[in-house]
Design goal:
disordered N terminus; 52% strand
Length: 154
């Protein structure tokens, strides 16, 4: 009888473990505004402003980023499916994206279809949930760049 109870407890704990573990990851859902003064752009032109709208469902995040540049706004969309598997990337350059959790950091690596562009992104959330920090390393025909983008929840 004792083994049956232990087996039943183990069965339910294993069955619910993914739900509890997923809850340990930060939820980046919401509307974010880039803090231009706290962000660093490396070789990239400093934008007039940036916004980010993110929605999360389980370990999948859909992000819509709009950058306000002198030539007008530029909007990009991406899906981060944090399962460690390769997925097709959205956008004109296409390619692939692999995302996974590194502790409480959401990490992604994207490669363009033509192999000319590579991007690595680390996204973390402050304990109070009001600030997200995004480190973006890129490599392309123009060289490499490292940006640190500091987002404030709107």
């Amino acid at each position: 009888m004792g083994r049956f109870i232990l087996a039943t407890i183990a069965y339910f704990c294993l069955g619910f473990a993914p739900h509890f573990l997923a809850a340990d990851h930060p939820d980046f859902s919401g509307h974010w505004i880039l803090n231009l003064d706290r962000s660093h752009f490396g070789k990239m032109e400093k934008p007039n402003g940036m916004t980010l709208a993110a929605t999360m469902s389980g370990d999948t995040m859909h992000a819509v980023q709009t950058m306000d540049l002198a030539g007008g706004p530029v909007t990009t969309e991406s899906n981060w499916i944090a399962d460690g598997q390769q997925h097709d990337a959205l956008g004109a350059n296409g390619g692939t994206i692999v995302a996974h959790w590194e502790g409480n950091t959401l990490y992604s690596e994207r490669k363009s279809s033509d192999g000319l562009y590579n991007e690595k992104v680390w996204l973390t959330l402050s304990k109070d949930g009001k600030t997200a920090t995004e480190k973006v390393w890129t490599k392309g025909p123009e060289g490499t760049n490292l940006r640190t983008l500091v987002w404030q929840k709107a």
